[in-house]
# Entry
Amino acid sequence: MPRIAGDLDEGQMVAHVARHTRAMMTAAGCIRVQRCHTNTCPTRVATHAVRRICG
# Structure
């Protein structure tokens, strides 16, 4: 029987979301260099810098 979100406490919900987010980023091409917050993602998956997205 599937669990609903109401059955999870806050910590379990955060862990659940983190697991799925990691899988989606990896599928998009993330190589996990942990530079997402600096706008210097080498694969351009997690950047908002226009010069890195377009070129």
